[in-house]
Amino acid sequence: MVERTVVGLPLSESPQTELLDLRLYSAFNALREFKDRNVLDLLHLGELDATKAASLANELAISIFQSLKIEPNGQTPDQVKPEKIEQLTSATQSLGNKLIVIRHAEQSPPEWVFTIPRADLRKIRMMQNPFNRMDLITNKSLAEVFATGFILCYLSARTGKDIKIFSSENARAFEIARVIKQMAPNSTIVIDEGLTCITYKDEGDDPCVTVEQILADVPSGFMPWEPKLIDKLCKPTRNGQRPSKTIEDSISYLYNQKDDPTGNSLFIALTHSQQLSEVLNKAKELADPSTRLPEMSMIAIGCDNFLILERGVLGETEKPKPIKRKDMRKILEKLGEGYQWYKVRRSEYETEEKIPFLVSPEPLILTNEEASEILTIGQDIVAFMNACNELFNIDDRVANLLNRGKPDYLQKARRTNYLFIRPDLIITKDGFSICEIETSPFGLPLAELLNRAYEEVGFQTLVPSCILGQFLRDHTTNRGQIVYSQNTASYAGQLQFLAREILSSVQREWNAAHIDTLVGVSPIHLYRGFYLYEALNDLFIHDLVIRVLDDLNVTPSLTPYMEEKALLALIWDSRLEPFFIQRLGTSTVDRLRKTIPPTWIVGQEEYFAGQLPNGVTSSIDLADLSKSMRRYVLKKSGFGHGSSWGEGVNFLHEKSQAEASRLLSAASSDNSSLYIIQEFMEGQKRPLIYEEKGSRKPIPMEARIRITPYFAMIGESAGQMLAIKATGCENTNYIHASTGSINTAVSAHPI
């Protein structure tokens, strides 16, 4: 890296500017893909208006943010504002050099510093080495840096000025320089020690300086622009000058560049608060030496103009405002207009409501610890499902078991293709308990609708609503067909919403249709909105499945073994324990056994790693126990009627001895299907509120809650949460979406 040489300023030793940020590999790949998508616009970049430039910058920011493969935790990059672009253009488009001084991006300190409870002590540690020099920027800031860099390139194209970058040595500033350089290859980068952040002395200096000594002079931990105080408390520079003098000289050099009317350069200085204060001081605009502009703020200077943009071209962060209670039912109806969200399957529950469930004025609010636990469950369950798929292909015992009742044409080994996995979580007094897993799209569109609605009124949900659509579009073809059956027609409206509002876009076309309308047709990409067992009794489904048996563009894939609840029993199978420990690790297996309640397959009791109650040796014997001893749930595993939507779920402790015996005997003698038994985990009651239809009167509900998060199963996004919703019911252990349940989005806050 080349440093500038300026008459009257000593040339400092070349600093170490290598910056190892592995996020940049995926981010630069996302940048290349963005360029490929927008070739024509980028060829005429300087001719675009500010609104179009802002739109492209925001598209890039989202692409970068998603490329990081992290859980957003309700965060999204701040939006670039067209009006700010216009202001910046107006300030820099006249003849001559122009200077834009930018404060660094948001610092991401390590856990030790981040968890210091006192803000003053935390700030001092952040401004001591190695953190001050080496800390990278936050994920959100990285995406915002790309958006800002894009606008600077747009500014260069629009004004015809070349870009010259001057940067501090600190990672949180130098990273911006690297990004701009990647976007504008003809630009130059100069590292300037005078732009580098001041660094507090510390306990390793001679003489030692403690945080208490610093606090005596700087009670807030934030250093004002007071040269004598800076020289007293901060480390000396390498060039031998006082820190404040080095800053003054560097800012003077850059400030004077604006006075050259014959130049045609855009000088970009990436620096820190004290340097920005000196810029304000030279412009006679510094009213208070403690002035601190937010991260990414810009000061644009020319011969005859001066502009301050807080947060630069980004929307300024507003303080949270109390969310005014709005009519969520009307908002849901508006966003979901034109789609039937659920057609009830039982006449006694018929309703004329467009939104056929109870609506809460707010999301379900989890603690941050609960939200973090759900994210861990997602990572674990994705790894577990992949291990189960491997088991099926290498262990004949597992394959023979999971193939029970399936026709030969669906027993063939195939490549799996599942976009997501949904572990259904019951909130219990001891945490979350997985009651089943799901791979079908039913309920996913509703989760997205709820997310969009509650975001629209100002709630911060766990997953930004843009995440799901981008993921699905990235992993499906531009054209395709969602096919549903008579059995799944209750979800036709949701599947149409999924096709038109999520999978489709300007250059993409997806539709949803009943199988009866597609006789003899093989879609380019088939998204399966029906269950594979329906091929046994529905000739149209059977015909379609046979025609696409070897088609790789079928989602979910024709692999029914991956859709069995019996997979949950495998983690409790003593024969398979060594395999799972080898593939997943002991800690993951322990977490899965904590989250998946003790489960066994009927007829496979001898391999159950847990302990059957009261010494029984077979499932049938459970019927002879008292109700308090048989707190277990009998479920049909899959591939047959009664294995979905809560059908075929029997709480044995709620049944009479005779009925329990009948159910267990039938399951034990059924050789065409698998059945599982799970220990019953009672849902913990939590307070929810719904609004009375019409009057909007708030009505409390002590609800048991089922949370349904969707996690990516493929690509680098595997394990990422794509969507999430919550369902609350009272006076029942069947917690399913219905006209009597609350369905809402999910948010989180610290405890």
Describe the strand arrangement of the main beta sheet, using strand numbers: 3-2-4-1-5-6
Rg result: 31 Å
Helix/strand/pairing category: alpha/beta
Number of strands: 22
Gross morphology is: elongated
Largest sheet geometry: 6 strands, mixed
Number of domains: 2
How would you sum up this structure, described in words?
This protein is of the alpha/beta class. The protein folds into 2 domains: 218 residues, Rossmann fold (3-Layer(aba) Sandwich), CATH 3.40.50; 339 residues, no CATH class. It has a 6-stranded mixed sheet, sandwiched between helices. Helix 20 links the parallel strand 12 and strand 13. The two termini are 47 Å apart. The relative contact order is 0.10.
Q: How would you summarize what this structure contains?
A:
With 751 residues, this protein is α/β, with parallel strands linked by helices. Helix content is 34%, strand content 17%. The longest helix has 27 residues, at 368-394.
